[in-house]
Specification:
The protein is an alpha+beta fold and 134 residues long. It has a single domain, classed as Roll (Nuclear Transport Factor 2, Chain: A), CATH 3.10.450. The chain has three helices and four strands. Strand 2 (95-106) and strand 3 form a beta hairpin. The protein starts with 25 loop residues before the first helix and ends with a strand.
């Protein structure tokens, strides 16, 4: 349990909006199972923001681009994820792109993060490389 962040049970809907339950979607990936696609990794990273799992974000960020500090604000509530576009990022691909809109709410307002994220397959796993925010 992470102080100030929502808890999600194994049989509850996954925060990523896939339609699956957490225990069959992002839960195992947050627990250490490697994502099979860039989209799965992106969805798990969104869920990490929802539940306050900064270690998952750090561990899935490419070592060449990970920031020194990954902190999450429990005052920000992530309220929904929309996948806009995907390019490659499947098993056998070396690169992938996932464009998404993530909605948030915090004291005093709401907003949206619109990002086109780049992922790379390296060392037998997918990594978040970076993203262009628009």
């Amino acid at each position: 349990m992470r102080a100030g962040f929502p808890q999600v049970g194994e049989d509850q809907p996954c925060p990523c909006g896939s339609g699956a339950v957490f225990g069959a979607c992002c839960g195992p990936i947050l627990g250490g199972v490697l994502a099979e696609t860039a989209l799965e990794l992106m969805r798990s990273r969104y869920t990490a923001f929802v539940v306050g799992d900064a270690s998952h974000l750090r561990e899935t960020w490419h070592p060449g681009t990970v920031p020194d500090d990954v902190r999450l604000d429990p005052g920000t509530r992530w309220t929904g994820l929309e996948i806009v576009d995907t390019v490659d990022g499947r098993p056998g691909d070396k690169r992938g792109i996932v464009e998404f809109r993530a909605h948030w709410r915090e004291r005093g307002g709401t907003g949206e993060l619109h990002e086109r994220s780049r992922f790379v397959w390296q060392s037998g796993r997918w990594w978040y490389l970076d993203g262009r925010v628009s």
